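Today's session is about reading a structure prediction critically. Students often jump straight to the picture, but the first step is always the sequence itself: look for stretches that repeat, for charged clusters, for runs of hydrophobic residues. Only then move on to the predicted structure, which in these notes is written as discrete structure tokens rather than atom positions. Here is the chain we will use throughout the hour.
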Amino acid sequence: MKSKIYPSFIFLAFLLVSSLSFSQVGINTTNPLSTLDINGNLSVKTVTLNGTNTGGLGTATLINDGVYISVRPLAQDDKFQLPDPKLVPGRVYIIRNIQNSVTAQLTTASELLFPKNSTTGSTYIYMYGGTRRTVIVISDGLNWTYFD
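Below is the predicted structure for this chain, in token form.
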């Protein structure tokens, strides 16, 4: 005995799937205008990472959690390593060196770090007091772009 699929069931399933795939979610709003529309404040996970106390010679401290990250280098040029940008497309980090007199070195697991409005990248940047103390990095799925 063959089962019969009813056209109304197929139409209902289509409506349900299409409404879920094009839905917009609002927090504190009844009329969201974007995929996620927040009418209020937003808090993000904050993390503090300590360096390895070996400077530029040692193993890097991995950045793999949080959004706002305070880095605390324990030796000059302690390394803090971003994940592979190909594995985290669209990921955004706000990174701040919280040491006043110790430089942090920000590196990436692969590919390059590009300053905004530039086509010349590097494998690392330095973060220190007075200049480039805080950076925002964004993965485009191939490399990292940073804003300071």
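Discussion point for the tutorial: The chain has a mean pLDDT of 88.
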